[in-house]
Design goal:
6 helices, 7 strands
């Protein structure tokens, strides 16, 4: 079990990010979180920053503050924050398209660019990106979201090759469905469709995600980067 580590998580005001934060704190870790909203976790060893992840200057300012707080000792980075709006690309707005790409792809890349430098100095680290089954299935109205997630997976694969020699492990977790503000945008029929496309009647849980991150942390090397929390296979 991961203990006494410095962990950075984006999107901690609700959903998966908040629940993971609580679990890490319970096990004696320190967590630096961010969201567009104010602090929603009033627990010792949690440090919250209000950050607009679509603004590169705000990202740089936040990561710099975290590096000062931790003296550059960042053990784990979990990229959880995401944006999703179901719209046909031809009917979508430039503003919404840009925001989706900024939050889901650009922000994780920029944060990684800064945090990985400290991990290289420390000669260890784990970086987790939350991807989605949308990266490998083609659903109408998700073209921008799916592209952002598949792009994140490609980044993860390449980054693993770049940082492996520094004892830094990289993985993206494809989450099938975990009840959250984001996933609640799916209607009942869409949830049924997901069940039909994958060999399972069960969806993800916070516990499964937490356990997967713990397993990855203690592996010597991650050979497969894009993982389902339950190693689910598409039919």
């Amino acid at each position: 079990m991961i203990k006494n580590s410095n962990i950075v998580i984006t999107g901690t005001s609700s959903g998966i990010g908040k629940e993971l934060t609580l679990k890490f704190l319970k096990n004696g870790n320190k967590v630096w979180g961010c969201s567009r909203k104010k602090d929603s976790i009033a627990i010792k060893n949690y440090f919250h920053y209000k950050v607009d992840l679509s603004d590169p200057s705000k990202i740089e300012e936040w990561v710099y503050k975290v590096s000062e707080d931790t003296d550059g000792k960042i053990d784990i980075f979990v990229s959880n924050a995401a944006a999703f709006e179901r719209k046909l690309n031809s009917l979508d707005s430039f503003k919404n398209i840009k925001n989706t790409i900024d939050i889901n792809l650009t922000a994780p890349i920029l944060i990684t660019n800064m945090i990985s430098k400290f991990m290289i100095q420390n000669k260890k680290g784990l970086i987790i990106y939350f991807s989605s089954v949308a990266a490998i299935i083609n659903e109408i109205g998700t073209s921008v979201y799916s592209s952002s997630k598949s792009g994140l997976e490609t980044f993860s694969k390449t980054l693993n090759q770049e940082l492996n020699k520094f004892n830094i492990k990289i993985a993206s977790l494809r989450i099938l469905h975990v009840p959250s503000k984001l996933s609640n945008k799916l209607n009942s029929q869409e949830i049924i469709n997901l069940k039909n496309k994958f060999k399972t009647n069960k969806f993800g849980t916070i516990d499964k995600i937490f356990n997967k991150i713990n397993k990855l942390y203690f592996l010597k090397k991650i050979s497969k980067n894009n993982l389902f929390c339950d190693e689910l296979k598409k039919k």
